[in-house]
Structures are given as structure tokens and as C-alpha cells.
Amino acid sequence: MNKKQITVMTILTLVIAFMDISGLPAALFVHCSLSDVTPYVMSLLVNFLIIGLFAWLVLKSFGKDWPLGLHASGLVEGLKKYASAGVAAGVFSCAAFIIGLAPFDHKPSVWKILIEGVLYYLGVAVIEELYVRGLFLNIVDKIFHKKEHHEIIAIWVSSVVFGLGHIPGVIGMEPLVILFKVISTVGMGLYFGVIYKKTNNLWVPIILHGFIDICALPYCFTTFSGYKTISLIGLVIIYTLLGIYSIVLMKPQKR
Predict the structure, then answer these.
(1) Of 69, 119, 241, 252, which is most buried with the most CB atoms under 10 A?
(2) Is there a domain that residue 35 lies in?
(3) In sequence order, which residues have a C-beta less than 8 Å from that of residue 5 and are 6 or more positions away?
(4) 245 in a structural domain
(5) What percent of the chain has pLDDT over 70?
């Protein structure tokens, strides 16, 4: 185990997490608006680019042999084998949002749909999978490499942290909403973690993460922000089931 490399990757993970949650440094100098696109989304998109550049520089210098998984090998096979559950979760999530948010009270511009409803969520998928699965999960895996089930430990730890990391986005909401949000994202994290380790390809969880997030597109058609009760219940059921499916996938294959 290369302790120096793990230390550098840990620092990189913490820095990216801080930049992602805080929106810094782009929030300090990006102040632009386009049609009805929420202004801070433009700032976050710029921040994603800054994070990507920073991560690339650090990885190029200290992580050339880091098992990130940003390659084509295993991508098609991984999607064929594991994508159906994620696609189903995304579609059902979209249905839950539609049911909870209807009737819709906003007619979005094409810019809002493309930037806020698609591009932003693709950026979220790339950045979150980069530092939660590509970096943090592998760090935990390497730390516990002597344990028999080190990969499972890494998947669980990264998934719980992934769930807790979404709390800042729901601060101010009802405690039950926060709890349900954490449960849902932990279930989602288990799925992303398992398919990442099963395929050793980071593009698989990135693509499915992006698809699931884009299924929140109904929010572009409403001025409401938050979660309606019926939508929240639906999401908890969907991602609890996805988490159970992921736990089943974790079981060692019988020889």
C-alpha cells in the first residue's frame, strides 16, 4: 500500500468535496444569467470545470496508477448487465416526481431544460462519481485491503458518506425529509458502488448516475422546490429496493 499516494488522494477527495458542496471558487466570480436558468447553476457548472481540471492535474502527477476506471474496457458489458435496475429506478423516480409536482406551474425555456435539467446533472454525475467512487471508495478499499471483505466495507462506507453528504442540500427541511433523503441516497450509493467494483469501470456509474439525476427533469416545470410527501415516499421505496438489489449483488459468487 502506497501511503504517500493514499494521503494525496485523500486530500484531493476532501478538497473536491469542499469545492462541490460550497460551490467555491466559482461562486466568488461567476455571476451570470441566461433566460430562466437559475443563476447559481451557471456558477456550479463553471465550478465543475475547475474541479475537473484540478483533479486531472493532481491525478496526472500523483495518481497515474490509481485504479480510477476511466476507460472503455468493460463499459458496454457493464451497462448490459447492470443498467436495467438503474434505468428502472430513474423512470419510477420521474413518475414519482410528476405525480407529486402536478399540476405544473412553469413553462421552461429550452435553455433551462438543457442546462439545468440535463447538463448540470451530467456534471454532478461526473464529479460525484469521481471523488466518491473513483477516489474515496478506492481509498477505503486500500486501507482495509487486509480484511476479507474489503470491497464490501468500502462500498458501504462510501455509500453512507454519500448519503450524509446530501444533507447540506436539504438543510431547513423537515427532519423526516432529511432522513428519507439520506436513506434514498445511501441506497443509490450502494448501487453505484457495486456496479463500479463489478465492472472496474467508472463510466458505468457515471452514466447511470447521470440518467437517474436527469429523471428529476420535472422540476424544470415547476416553481416548487423540495419534496412532496408522495414523491418522497416513492423515492424511499425505489432506492431501498435498489439498495437491496445491490446488497444481493455483493454476495460472493458460489464456486
Answers:
(1) 69
(2) no
(3) 62, 63, 66
(4) yes
(5) 98
The secondary structure of 144-168 as a DSSP string is: TTTSTTHHHHHHHHHHHHHHHTTGG
The interaxial angle of helices 203-214 and 120-128, nearest 10 deg, is 140
| 244: containing domain | 71-250
- The domain tally of the chain equals 1
Q: What is the pLDDT of residues 87-137, one digit of tens each?
A: 999 999 999 999 999 999 999 999 999 999 999 999 999 999 999 999 999
With a cut of 70, list the residues of the chain below it in pLDDT: 1, 253-255
CA distances to 1, 6, 28, 72, 143 from 12, in Å: 18, 10, 21, 24, 16
Residue 13 forms part of a structural domain:
no
Which cell numbers hold the place of 250? 455483493
Q: Is residue 173 part of a domain?
A: yes
Measured between alpha carbons, how far is 150 from 217 in angstroms, rounded to an integer? 37
Rounded to whole angstroms, what are the CA distances from 168 to 108, 162, 198?
Answer: 26, 12, 30
Check: pTM over 0.70? Answer yes or no: yes
The whole-number pLDDT of residue 252 equals 74
Q: Is the dihedral of CA 236, 80, 125, 130 positive or negative?
A: positive
